[in-house]
Amino acid sequence: MTVKVRFAPSPTGRLHVGNVRTALVNWLFARKHGGVFVLRIDDTDLERSTIENEEAIETDLTWLGLPWGERYNQSKRFDSYERAAATLKAAGRLYPCYETQEELDRRRKVQLSRGQPPIYDRAALDLTDEDKAKLEAEGRKPHWRFKLEGKRVVWEDLVRGHCEVDTASLSDPVLIREDGLFLYTLPSVVDDIEMAITHVVRGEDHVTNSGAQIEIFEALGATPPTFAHMSLLIGADGQALSKRLGSLSVGQMRDEGYEPIAITSHLGRIGTSDPVELVGSLDELAGGFAFEKLGRAPARYDTADLDRLNAQAVHALDYAAAQPRLATLGADLGEAFWLAVRENLNRFDDARGWAETLTGTVEGPRLDEAFKAAAIVAFEEVVPAGSEPDTQSWSAFTNAVKEATGAKGGALFKPLRQALTGRDAGPDMAALLPLIGRNRILERLRGG
Length: 448
Description:
448 residues, alpha/beta, three-stranded antiparallel sheet, 12% strand
């Protein structure tokens, strides 16, 4: 059997950390088993779906390194859904209902007041053809519900183990709205059947839905796929993700300077028994993936972990990989510059600040006049006119200043770093001196 999974985002918004994790786990599972990752755009809501969001989903998945093997738009598959609906109607499993939302709300309130479960009472099944004709003459249009069998639906979940849903405790789900729009459930099942999806991997908030969906698979004469319901994400504090973080889009994360491999390493490891560490590639992440490693406890999304992984990803970039991006930033000062500053970057774009520090104007605290004079003399002796500093110059320079002033430790190194870079900390000054250059060093010492 060829493993085939699907990711079915709705183009009514942008991808955020929750659905990216779902896409990633599906992709990793398919990759590990040499299977197919299907991108299925759930655009049946024609009013709210946009081409811009659809294109953004493709851009985000591509940027994250998650290519798809097959791609579909549900809006182009209505004929398949109509055929499935006709099959269910002929079998008596899809039936018309005429209640308004207000009428349904009143019934629920009555049920709750009587201590009854607020599920649909199937009153529409008692309507005669004459009743239906009268309601339609009043201008009412039916919505269509799937008649559940009211049984215990069982399956073995790859994450949760043995699962059971008693469909007698559920309302018959609405599959088609009054305006003829198909809701998520029927298109999802029909597509899973016709696209030969073998595994449905999604969040645990869909567990109850699976009970009804399995009945629809069976009513259409199909064998349900294998299910895997992952735990949901929580914040570092153990609480539900805040609105801001929970809706954090991939586009925002890209704009804020996060590396794709940092995002996928983080989302691919949280909630598993593996340590949250940076991986070298998505293939490496896929090679270590197993549903057995996914825990039942909520997965903890911690931006501190993501920031740590992101810094590691930037530090691991060699100059060949960094050069085009440095050029785009206007910060390509050569390989020596990149090797000098990369360990001090949290985001790649921080390199621009260091390029400006080395080539622009800096402002540090004013040096003591005697210390300044000694530093200028020492530097001119170590790097005489007509030469440039090298990686040995810093040591010789600071030793000469120390001998002339008696300063040592922080009293020696801190004011010199501040005068030359305008910063209290940063890369090894031995590597920075050649990049700043003799003339600019003297200019900064004299101005300090």
